[in-house]
Amino acid sequence: MTKQITLEEALKLVSFYQVGGGSWRVLEVNGYIKGSVNGEIYGDVNGNVRGYVDGNVNGDVNGEIYGNVNGNVLGTINGREWKFVETPKDKLQRLITELGNQELIDTFNQMKNN
After folding, report:
1. DSSP per residue over 67-78, as a string?
2. Can you give the pTM of this predicted structure?
3. Which terminus of the chain has a lower count of CB atoms within 10 Å, N or C?
4. What is the pLDDT of residues 92-106, one digit of tens each?
5. Is the dihedral angle over the CA atoms 90, 96, 97, 102 positive or is it negative?
């Protein structure tokens, strides 16, 4: 028989909260969502993520992520290829920062704050 995880061990990995009607939802996962079949790593979230993903998404997103992904998406979002889009403001900030001209950086930051 396979050893079962204890409640104390599980609560170190996952925290929960209770919603109306007495049902429970996952609040936070402190670790990886993964499994292994024939050496291939996989894992699924069958629902939406309402918060941040501090890591990579190595698969398809067929639901919603209400927050930021602080990593890469190596799959599709609702069947469409994910692509990073840099806004003109972000591009200008990146180019000025890459130049390293402190006067330009200070001027840009002043404009951004106003």
Report:
1. S-BSS-B-SEET
2. 0.48
3. N
4. 888 888 888 888 888
5. negative
